[in-house]
UniProtKB/TrEMBL annotation:
Positions that bind ATP: 18-23
EC number: 2.7.1.24
Pathway(s): Cofactor biosynthesis; coenzyme A biosynthesis; CoA from (R)-pantothenate: step 5/5
PANTHER family from the UniProt entry: BIFUNCTIONAL COENZYME A SYNTHASE-RELATED (PTHR10695:SF46), DEPHOSPHO-COA KINASE-RELATED (PTHR10695)
Lineage of the organism: Bacteria, Pseudomonadati, Pseudomonadota, Gammaproteobacteria, Pseudomonadales
Family: Belongs to the CoaE family.
Name the record gives this protein: Dephospho-CoA kinase
Cellular component GO terms, alphabetical: cytoplasm
The keyword Transcription regulation appears for this protein: no
Superkingdom: Bacteria
Enzyme class: transferase
Compartment(s) of residence: Cytoplasm
Signal peptide: none
Length: 207
């Protein structure tokens, strides 16, 4: 069992859509840091065979399932976006399960610090479970440009996602560290390495 002193501290990593947080997280992982993705945890708890998916199907009916038994996310999204009460029911079911999944994954970390990557780190309150927050930041025009290239989506859709995520000011207000990703991947990786060496000097996430 880890003693408290050797237990990895947790870095929360976030950033708006198209900021480069996934690329940053991948590079931290390549440096040997244990990385847990909140989105992956959220998907995993509703996999076929998991209790949450059975409850969701019982509550909403088979219309939210696809032929192969997977969750039909777009059907479920349509229901919860038009009915706040149903959204609250779903969140009450899933949030504790996702929290538990994240905690179990983070507990397996062997690296000096571990990273929780979450696009909604601030909005969901997940940042309260971390000792330090790193925000990957990029000018909004660049975020839109990158997302359009990556997702082949419309500018309106990207703008809607940007509007739904925490405002840039709000994210930066919670940040202990900010990595401005406004050039290329090479510069991003160099900055990640610089932060990594700094983080290795910290105890409990603090200098």
């Amino acid at each position: 069992m880890n003693t408290l002193s050797s237990k990895p501290w947790i870095l929360g990593l976030t950033g708006g859509i198209g900021s480069g947080k996934s690329a940053a997280a991948e590079h931290f992982a390549s440096l040997g840091v244990h990385v847990v993705d909140a989105d992956h945890a959220a998907r995993w708890v509703v996999e076929p065979g998991r209790p949450a998916l059975i409850e969701i199907a019982e509550h909403f009916g088979d219309a939210v399932l696809m032929a192969d038994g997977q969750l039909n996310r777009s059907a479920l999204r349509n229901i919860i976006f038009s009915d706040p009460q149903q959204r609250q029911w779903l969140e009450a079911l899933l949030h504790p399960l996702v929290r538990e999944e994240i905690a179990q994954n983070l507990a397996q970390a062997q690296s000096p610090y571990a990273i929780l990557v979450s696009p909604l780190l601030i909005e969901s309150g997940q940042y309260t479970t971390t000792q330090r927050v790193l925000v990957i930041d990029a000018p909004q025009t660049l975020q839109i440009q990158r997302t359009l290239l990556r997702d082949k989506t419309s500018e309106e859709q990207v703008q809607a996602i940007l509007n739904a995520q925490a405002s840039r000011e709000e994210r930066l207000r919670h940040a202990d560290d900010v990595l401005v990703n406004d050039t290329d991947l090479k510069v991003l990786k160099t900055e990640v390495e610089r932060l990594h060496h700094f983080y290795l000097t910290l105890r409990g996430g603090q200098p």
